[in-house]
Design brief:
This is Transposase. It comes from Streptomyces griseorubiginosus. It is built from 3 helices and no strands. The chain is mainly α. Helix 1 (about 10-25) packs across helix 2 and helix 2 crosses helix 3.
């Protein structure tokens, strides 16, 4: 299946996500393991890196939402 890439959006954020993904692939942590699993599943290097970037962006988005929810919660001051 070929995925049509949308190159729009925030180029600075896209570049940062790409650099995070490349750095994770070079290491031996979660990102490298995920990348290796995608390669063994038959994905190309480009596809596997795209999937890793998407996984990273989903994690960042989830963390940002959690931070915002924490800020929106009324504080308990005496």
């Amino acid at each position: 299946m070929h995925v049509r890439l949308n190159r729009g959006g925030n180029r600075t954020v896209n570049h940062a996500l790409h650099m995070i993904a490349v750095t994770q692939v070079r290491g031996d942590g979660e990102g490298a393991a995920y990348f290796a699993r995608q390669l063994t599943a038959g994905k190309t290097n480009t596809e596997a890196l795209r999937l890793l970037r998407r996984r990273i962006s989903d994690r960042v988005h989830r963390d940002l939402l959690a931070d915002q929810a924490e800020l929106d919660r009324p504080s308990k001051r005496s």
